[in-house]
Specification:
It is built from 14 helices and 13 strands. It starts with a strand and ends with a helix. It is of the alpha/beta class. It has two domains: 233 residues, Aspartate Aminotransferase, domain 2, CATH 3.40.640; 89 residues, Aspartate Aminotransferase, domain 1 (Alpha-Beta Complex), CATH 3.90.1150. Strands 2-8-7-6-5-3-4 form a seven-stranded mixed β-sheet, sandwiched between helices. A four-stranded antiparallel β-sheet has the order 9-10-13-12, covered by helices on one side. Helix 2 packs parallel to helix 11 and helix 3 packs across helix 10. Helix content is 44%, strand content 17%. The relative contact order is 0.17. Bound molecules: ligand TLP. The site of ligand TLP has 15 residues, from helix 3. Ligand TLP binds next to helix 3.
Length: 339
Amino acid sequence: MIDLRSDTVTRPTRAMRQAMMDAPVGDDVFGEDPTVNKLEEYVAALLGKEAAIYCPSGTMTNQIGVYVGTGRGDEVLLHEDAHIFRYEAGAPALLSGVQVRPLPGEGGIIAPETLRAAVRPENVHFPRPKLLCLENTHNVAGGKIFPLEKFAAVAAEARGLGINVHLDGARLFNAAMATGLPAWEWCEHADTVSVCSSKGLGAPVGSLLAGDEETIREARRARKAFGGGMRQAGVIAAASLHAFEHHIERLAEDHERARKLAAGLEKSGYTVEPPETNIVLVEVGEAESFLRDLAEHGVLATPWGKSTVRMCTHLDICDEEIEAAIEAASRVAAVFTQL
Ligand code: TLP
C-alpha cells in the first residue's frame, strides 16, 4: 500500500533505530535522562528559546501551551480550522477550563483586524482574552505557510492587546524549508511554540514545547499533571533528536514530490490546489467512494470534507510511489468518466 494518509505514518529508519539503541538514559522525571536533556537543549536553540520540554505528542505540547498561557475561564482565540480547536478532543475545556473563540481567515491566517474586532474589553460579562493560537503550516488549509510578515503583524496586535501567543508548529520546519527562513524567525513572535518530530521529520513519537525558562518550568508541572512524565525516555527521545539533526533538510524532497503529485493529478482531470509544502488537497467529487476505489488500486488518502481528500508526502514515499499514486488516481478518474 502507498500510504498518503498523513506524514505521521512513517516508520523509524535504520539509523534512527540505531540511535535509539545507543541512547544513554536516566529517569527523566528526575531530570536525569541525558538524551532527553540534550534533545530539549537542541530544540530550544533551534527555535531561539531559553528552554524546551519533551512530551509524547503534539496534542500534549499544544495543550500545555494553552494551560500555561491561560487561567480558568479565560478565552483562547484561534482559527476556526485550527488543530487545537478541531482535533484535540475538546482538551482546552477539559484540561484548562477555558473558552475557545474560533476566528475566520483565508488559508488559516488570522488578520490583525479580525483579532482586534474579536477582543472584548474588560467587563464582568466577558471572559478575559488571554491567548492567541496560530498554526504554521496550517493543516486543514492544506499545509499553507503563515507568511512571516503576517504572522508578526497579528502577533504584535495580540501583544498590544495583552494577549500571549502560542504557535502550533507541528509542521513549522516545512514552512522553514519552503521559504528558506529559519524556524526561529516565527518563534520570535510567539511566547510558546510546539514542534513535532513525529510528522514530516519521521520520528515514531515526540513533540517539544519551547518558551522562556519560567514558562517551561510551569510546563513541567503541567506535563506531570497531564500524565506525560516519562522515565527512561531517552530511548524514544533519541529518535526525535535524530529526526531534528538529520531530517529537516530533506523536507524539501517531500515538497517537490507534493508538487509532482499535484501536477500529475491535475493532468488526470482533478482539481488540485498548488501545494506550498507536503500536503495536497484534491477535489474528487465524492470523497468516500473515491477513497474506496483508490484503496483498491493500492493507495491510501484521508477524507478532508465531503468532496475533498488529503494526500501527504513524507519520508516513506519515493518518486516511484508518487508515479504509482498518480496512475492509480487516473484509473479511478477514468472509471468515473465512463459512468
Ligand atoms: N495532525 C494529524 C491529525 O491529528 C489530523 C494529521 O494527520 O495531520 N498540530 C497539528 C497542526 C497537527 O497536524 C497535529 C496532528 C497535531 C498538532 C497533533 O499531533 P499529535 O498527533 O502528535 O498529537
